[in-house]
Amino acid sequence: MALTIEKFSFGVGDRFAHQGKAQLAAIMKAAEQGVEIVPVWNKSNREHQTIGSEVGSCRAAADAAVRDLGWHKSHYVDADHINLKIVDPFLDSSDFYTIDVADAIGSPADEAAVSAFIDSVPELVGTLTISGISEPLVMSRESIAVTAGKYLKAVQLAGEIYRYIVSKIGAGNFVTEVSMDETDSPQTPPELLVILAAIAKEGIPIQTIAPKFTGRFNKGVDYVGDVAQFEKEFEDDLAVISYAVERYRLPANLKLSVHSGSDKFSIYGPIRRALEKTGAGLHIKTAGTTWLEELIGLAEAGGSGLGLAKEVYSQAFANSDALCQPYATVIDIDPEKLPSPDEVNRWSSEQFVNALRHDPNHPEFNASFRQLLHVGYKIAAKLGDRYLQMLDECEASISRNVTENLYERHLKPLFLD
Fold first, then answer.
1. Can you spell out the DSSP letters for 74-131?
2. Strand 255-258 vs strand 208-210: parallel, antiparallel, or unpaired?
3. Among 74, 251, 381, 403, which one has the highest count of C-beta atoms within 10 angstroms of its own C-beta?
4. How far apart are CA 151 and CA 153, in angstroms?
């Protein structure tokens, strides 16, 4: 029987593999309220390299959390943002694969392949009415060719990666996600439909897809953009998926995936309304928000914990250019709003927590401070055992913050309120 992910799934990143139980506790609190959400622990190759961790450590930490808390429902481990060059180390421990084909988006596909694809989808040429979308979709052979020219090669690469994974661990033994979010502009409904048709023709049993949405999904802070426009795009995407599932016999549980979904508080209401209206499922990925809650827990504990949190900031400030460069497209830091390390060293525990905790209405909250620390986990990694030992010493404070953050600020507004 093919592995089939449940309707609602929540990606939980854990940079240092210490917060599995605290993360799962939030999922279990939602279950107590009658909402079934399954955890997906995700960690990318880049994060493993930055931390210096073994790929299998993510599976080990997830399984330990599940065992220790007596979780008897599903859980998954996501080989996040993989490609053919880096997938092999993940094969022994992952049962969810986020296939990242960003580098191939925009690379021109073979003209004969584009023509053959268009010939295979004659039903898309003309005017198409899709339930849930206010205006009919109007597509011509030429417009489909433009979309296929941009995305077909990426879909072909996704197929190649998918078949490689099948050759190693067997069909039906993993959940497949295709990531299309790292492109310049959001996909329109006709573009998403063409992409899904191409995925179906490629034979990929995709269960989640991550399109590009309007606005900015910066790391660790709220959504920046037109919330009303996002809501319309999200609902249109759900309608296109529903149509494509029926028309192209894609998996019935195919659902949207929202990347960099943590801390995007202003769009949680629109997402929840859309899910309630349509009955659709959702996968949402979070990662760095847990690492930041570790720092908050350290600072809240005071003493040596607060001292180490301040040390991490001081080194992040000194190395900000190098830390920010890999994330330049997904952060917006105003250097003028970054406090100096000397100033931060004079802060109380409460001041550090207030500046870092994601409460946009708090007068001391500092989005630039938070984003720099979000990308500063490399500093903690370099501290090695000093950092890990402090996590253990401050476990009570940290776990309380991790669980509260995921449950109160993420799961409740998305699935419960």
1. --EEEEEEE-TTT-GGGTTT-SEEEEE-GGGTTSPPPHHHHHHHHHH-GGGSEEE--T
2. parallel
3. 403
4. 6
Rg of the chain over all Cα atoms, to the nearest angstrom: 22
- Interatomic CA distance for residues 221 and 228, integer angstroms: 19
Considering the chain, tell me which residue range(s) the CATH 3.20.20 domain(s) occupy: 8-288+408-416
- pTM of the model as a whole: 0.97
SS3 for 7?
coil
**Cα–Cα distance, 365 to 347 (Å, whole number):** 13
How high is the pLDDT of residue 49? Answer: 95
Sequence-distant (≥ 6) Cβ neighbours of residue 152 within 8 angstroms: 109, 113, 114, 117, 198
The Cα diameter of the chain in Å comes to 68
Architecture (CATH level 2) of domain 8-288+408-416: Alpha-Beta Barrel (3.20)
* 126-128 and 137-139 beta bridge pairing: antiparallel
How do beta strands 282-286 and 255-258 pair? parallel
The b-or-e profile of 258-279 (16+ CB within 10 A means b, else e) is bbbbbbbbbbbebbbebbeeee
Beta-strand relationship, 175-179 and 96-100 = parallel
Q: What is the pLDDT of residues 27-62, one digit of tens each?
A: 999 999 999 999 999 999 999 999 999 999 999 999
Is 43:80 a contact under the CB 8 Å cutoff? yes
pLDDT digits 0-9 by tens, 314-347: 999 999 999 999 999 999 999 999 999 999 999 9
Rounded Cα distance between 187 and 275, Å, is 20
Q: Fill in the amino acid letter for 51.
A: I
